[in-house]
Design a protein that fits this description.
The chain has about 375 residues and is of the alpha+beta class. Helix content is about 35%, strand content about 15%.
Length: about 375
């Protein structure tokens, strides 16, 4: 709606971010959305309602749902020991890591290192198209990524963890390892699996991996650094290494992201959804018990405007930012995306979703 777009642009200008989109949805679908700003700072191309945004760690809930699809089919169990899928390393497992479960991975209670470093990435930051490390790891076929995640699984399971504790400790490697399990039992890449089992049945058509758009063109939003400068090279390479996909490399339109989030709302309310209700209940419940604040891909908290329980998550690859909030009891949610990775972008997105909540509810958000 025009007046919301005006308000959104005021928020964008206030926080000095190049481009911004915010969207509100219910269990029935999108209610309203608006965009403001440009695809690349210093250039006139405007962002549109159909642009593709990088959502970073908001990918994690998608990976958790993908794991849930195998649980629903009886092919996996949330409490399956990860080591059981890699018997070839039986004599080499670290004693602590041998007992880790999928549940502990997805709820960030494994104790594994937060991120891969240096050669552990098997590639480096991919803003440089001439980097041979990226060329060796690019997803020209699924096999290199399956091999890389297999190597990461070996690294994680046969070496000491970051901490020998099952206390909450956020870690991107948890989701890489969970994906490696799926790839091991299917001999199919995470990228192919999530397209087949999540995106296709939810009619998500714009999803891809890495930075969005065509290198050198202004056909999609470019990522911007904290300084406000755009990346030197846009497109798929303007992101973390592809091996990290399950933890946070998805891009897609806001409308398509909303399709995934609507499914989460519907699943939470026992409505027709992609998977059985018990899968959503597990994802959206604190793990391992009510004292926790993270489920499988979701931060779980309470807000008065939501009537109680909320599901939320943010994502950034340091070049883009996204956030979403779901209110299962009141059956609606909001999301916002910016093409900059910074505290300014986070504040802009938070203010944008706050405005949508106030517009949707007759109470102070």
């Amino acid at each position: 709606m025009p007046y919301f777009a005006t308000d959104l642009d005021a928020i964008r200008q206030k926080h000095d971010v190049p481009g911004l989109q915010a969207l509100l949805f219910t269990t029935d679908g999108v209610v309203e959305t608006a965009v403001a700003g440009v695809r690349k700072a210093g250039y006139p191309a405007l962002v549109t309602e159909h642009d593709h945004w990088h959502i970073g760690s908001n990918t994690k809930a998608m990976t958790a749902l993908l794991v849930g699809s195998f649980v629903a089919e009886g092919k996996l169990n949330w409490d399956s020991p990860v080591s059981s899928f890699f018997p070839e390393w039986k004599k080499r497992f670290h004693s602590y890591c041998k007992k880790l479960t999928l549940s502990q991975l997805l709820s960030h209670r494994s104790g594994l290192i937060r991120d891969l470093r240096g050669e552990q990435h098997l590639t480096y930051r991919t803003n440089f198209p001439s980097d041979p490390a990226w060329e060796q790891s690019s997803a020209k076929s699924p096999d290199p990524l399956i091999q890389q995640r297999y190597a990461v699984a070996e690294l994680l399971l046969t070496n000491p963890p970051g901490q020998k504790s099952h206390d909450y400790s956020y870690s991107n490697t948890n989701y890489i390892l969970a994906a490696a399990v799926l790839e091991k039992i299917t001999d199919t890449s995470w990228e192919s699996l999530i397209r087949e089992r999540v995106f296709a049945p939810l009619h998500i058509t714009t999803a891809g991996f890495g930075g969005s758009g065509t290198a050198g063109q202004l056909d999609q939003p470019w990522g911007h650094k904290e300084s406000g400068l755009p990346v030197s090279v846009n497109g798929p390479k303007a992101d973390n290494p592809p091996v990290m996909g399950p933890a946070g490399t998805v891009h897609l339109s806001a409308e398509d992201w909303a399709k995934f989030l609507v499914d989460q709302l519907r699943g939470a309310n026992g409505m027709r959804s992609l998977l059985p209700a018990e899968i959503y209940a597990a994802m959206q419940s604190p793990q391992p018990d009510k004292t926790a604040e993270y489920g499988y891909g979701w931060i779980i908290t309470e807000r008065s405007w939501a009537g109680g329980k909320t599901l939320t998550h943010a994502g950034t690859n340091t070049l883009n930012y996204s956030v979403c909030w779901l209110a299962p009891i009141r059956q609606f949610g909001v999301l916002a995306c910016a093409n900059q990775g910074s505290e300014k972008a986070a504040k802009a997105c938070d203010e944008a979703v706050g405005l949508l909540i106030k517009r949707h509810l007759p109470i102070k958000a």
